[in-house]
Amino acid sequence: MEVAQVAVVVATYGRADLLPRLLAALGAQVDAPPYEVVVVDDASRDDTTAVLQRLAGSLDVPVRVLRLPHNRGPATARNLGWRATRAPLVAFTDDDCVPCPTWLGRLAAALRTADVAQGRTLPDPQQEASCGPFSRTLRIEQEDGLYQTCNIAYRRCVLEHQGGFDESFRHPAGEDTELAWRAVEGGARTAFVPGAVVLHDVRPSSVLAALRDIPRWGSVVLVVRKHPAMRGRLHSRWFWRSSHPPALAAMGGLGVLALSRRRGRLALVAGMLAPYARLRLTREPLPATGPRRRVVLLPAALLIDAAEVAVCAAASVRWRRLLL
Question: Is 291 exposed, middle or buried (CB count within 10 Å of its CB: 0-12, 13-18, 19+)?
């Protein structure tokens, strides 16, 4: 058996139904150096263990399955994965992704001259019908400073020098960005590889699902605390998203309306609500919606943006770094 030159590491939790598709894609890589796959089950409660055991022997490449006894988060799971292999190159993808056949070979080729190589990530075109105003997916077509682990590779020496992912990040958010910034600040060279394509799941549109997903984004504040230079990548340095300043103003307007309904105050309230309405109706409209539906969904959009601001505010207090 050839010695693996590349290890593909996947941290998974509670997505047994997605694993056959992912493992099939990893087993179908072409024009890649000898590679192995390491899947780390972060104490899933579904039948992930049984599914992985069944799939591990069905591929033509070595598959190693590891399991954490307790849920520790993706940072810990990925560290366990890359440390379990001796491959000099380590690629990462996620359990809700499908790497295209030339993905690994192109990332490995980029690491001949770079220390960190990021590929292109697109919404899965087979799931376009699922796309709605509150769907979640990823579209990454240039190096934007976030370095998501759905599609990235490192030289092993970089991971060793940096000590891997920071395991104080318990939720699946920010730990990938923080590691890459640490590596870049330590002198690592980066490359963006458009031909290394990963297709990302499109989560069905749901307001409740979007709200349940929000608490993890407080980790963005921790990234900024550890890497202040990242503020230059944010909206006006003090806001995570461009929708947050007008959402904050709209929340203030609704507060004024709740406290007083005097005619003189109504003009003030309208003025505070207008920037958010313009943003969501014309400048940054909700995806997969027409003009009328955008109006109907405006309260739901504001609710989600307001919840994000609240999560960032709470994290700002916890980490003593202002980011809204």
Answer: exposed
Structure pTM? Answer: 0.92
- Please state the φ and ψ torsions of residue 235, each to the nearest 5 degrees: -75, 115
User: Per-residue pLDDT for 1 more than 80?
Assistant: no
Cβ pair 228, 178 in contact under 8 A: no
CA-closest candidate to residue 32, choices 101, 80, 126, 118: 101
Separation CA 165–CA 4 (nearest Å): 22
Two tokens, residue 320? 């003593």
Q: Which CATH class is domain 6-205?
A: alpha beta
Report yes or no: 175 and 219 within 8 Å, Cβ to Cβ: yes
Distance CA(147)–CA(180), nearest Å, equals 6
Question: What are the structure tokens assigned to 268, written together?
Answer: 């003030």
Alpha helices in 167-319 (DSSP H): 175-185, 207-213, 219-226, 244-259, 263-278, 291-319
pLDDT tens by residue, 125-162: 998 887 899 999 999 999 999 999 999 999 999 999 99
**Per-residue pLDDT at 281 exceeds 60:** yes
Task: Report in angstroms the alpha-carbon separations of 157 from 115, 136, 161.
Answer: 9, 33, 6
Q: Are 235 and 305 in contact (CB under 8 A)?
A: no
Residue where the block lists tokens 């990925």: 78
Segment 171-223, tens digit of pLDDT:
888 999 999 999 999 999 999 999 999 999 999 899 999 999 999 999 999 99
The alpha carbons of the chain give a radius of gyration, in whole angstroms, of 21
Every domain of the chain and the residues it spans: 6-205, 207-324
